[in-house]
Specification:
The chain is mainly β. Helix content is 3%, strand content 42%. The protein has one helix and 22 strands. The radius of gyration is 18 Å and the shape is globular. The chain starts with a strand and ends with a helix.
Length: 270
């Protein structure tokens, strides 16, 4: 069954906890629960909501990753939810699978969307094969050093690295054999970075402060210009959909917020 999250309300998602064993986590298919919906338009031919929407989650949303119509949410000791999503005038979501037995701090999807890397609270990375979303498979574990927590410009010149409470670093990687740190942002915490507007701007997750917009007229000198505060939430994860017109935001106990990117930037004065 589908569930629809209207722009003006948060609908609770009830998820059955699956069994499983093993330190690397297990995948559990969870039956979908029917909920009340007034949406009679089942077409999902749009790529972004008209305004803000919220997808509720079983556990606190710590990190998100999006590929096409699939949303991956890291939820701490509640594991990882894999949701099918769609847009009409609202946002619809359908629980596909849940990865149990893993304290999920962060999710990162490979560029080809075939592999999901789940960073655990202990820093190790669980590797999940998600080529078949009806049967995702945990295939192993690797050290944290193999998870590069960064965003790279399209031309491959600069890399923006989130450093948590220590802000953000800018690296010149035009010479891969000799990368050089060329800038940093120390005035704000930074837990995730997404580049927008042809790499001329960036949005960063700053924890309790919310979402900050940075201008990158000089790529080496990130310039904070605006903040969108999410009341009562801690923003620790950001992810853009493939068409880059919808922003998914991990907000802890408040679940996953979904923004029409153009409208969010307009609210932020840009």
């Amino acid at each position: 069954m589908k569930k629809t999250i209207f722009l003006s309300a948060v609908l609770a998602l009830f998820i059955g906890c699956g069994g499983g064993s093993g330190g690397n986590g297990s995948t559990t298919k969870t039956p979908n629960k029917q909920i009340i919906s007034n949406n009679t338009d089942e077409k999902n031919d749009k790529t972004a909501p008209k305004s803000e929407a919220i997808i509720s989650t079983e556990g606190p949303a710590k990190s998100v990753a999006v590929s096409d119509n699939t949303l991956f949410v890291a939820e701490g000791k509640n594991g990882v939810e894999i949701l099918k999503i769609g847009f009409s005038d609202s946002v619809s979501s359908e629980l596909l699978y849940k990865i149990d037995n893993v304290d999920a701090k962060k999710v990162t999807l490979s560029k080809d969307a075939k592999t999901l890397l789940v960073e655990k609270a202990d820093g190790k990375i669980v590797v999940v094969d998600v080529r078949d979303l009806s049967h995702p498979k945990v295939v192993g574990e690797q050290p944290k050093s193999n998870l590069d927590d960064d965003t790279t410009t399209k031309d491959g010149t600069y890399k923006y690295v989130a450093k948590g409470q220590n802000g953000m670093e800018v690296w010149d990687i035009s010479n891969p054999s000799n990368p050089e740190k060329v800038g940093e942002l120390k005035s704000s915490s930074c837990y995730e970075v997404v580049l927008i507007d042809d790499d001329k701007k960036a949005l960063i997750a700053t924890g309790s402060v919310g979402i900050k917009l940075l201008k990158l007229d000089n790529p080496k000198v990130p310039n904070p210009v605006s903040t969108y505060r999410v009341k009562g939430a801690s923003v620790t994860g950001l992810s853009l959909n493939g068409t880059k017109d919808a922003l998914f935001v991990a907000t802890g106990k408040s679940g996953v917020m979904v923004f029409n990117l153009d409208m969010l930037l307009e609210k932020m004065g840009y």
